Amino acid sequence: MIGNSLRWELNAFVGFIERQKNLYRRYWLWEAVWLLYNLVSVLSIGYLAAGLSTLGLEPGQANLHQTQLYLLVGALLWTYLSLVFFEIAFAITWERWEGTIEYTFMAPIKRLTHLLGMSAASLIYGIARTAAIGFALIFFFKLDLSHANWLTALAIFAAATLPLLGLGIFTSVLPLLSPEKGEQMAFAVQGVLLLISGVYYPISVLPAPLHIVGILSPLTYTLSGVRESLLHGLSLAGALPDIGILLLMGVVLVPASVWCFNRAEVRAKRLGLLKRSG
Amino acid sequence: MAIKESELNTVAVELHGISKRFGQPARRPFGRRKAKKEKLALDQVSMRVDTGRITGILGANGSGKSTLIRILATLMTPDAGTASVFGYDVVTQPDDVRRHINRVSVEASFFKEMSPWENMLYAARLYGSGGKGTRARVEGMLERLGLPLDTLDKPMKQLSRGQQQKVAIARSFLTSPSLLLMDEPTTGLDPRSKREVQELVRTIRRDRAATVLLCTHDLEEAELLCDHVLVLDQGRVLAEGTPAELIHAHAGEVGGSLEDAFMKLTGKRLEEDEEEKDE
Question: How many Cα atoms within 13 Å fall on the side-chain side of residue B201?
Answer without folding.
Answer: 33
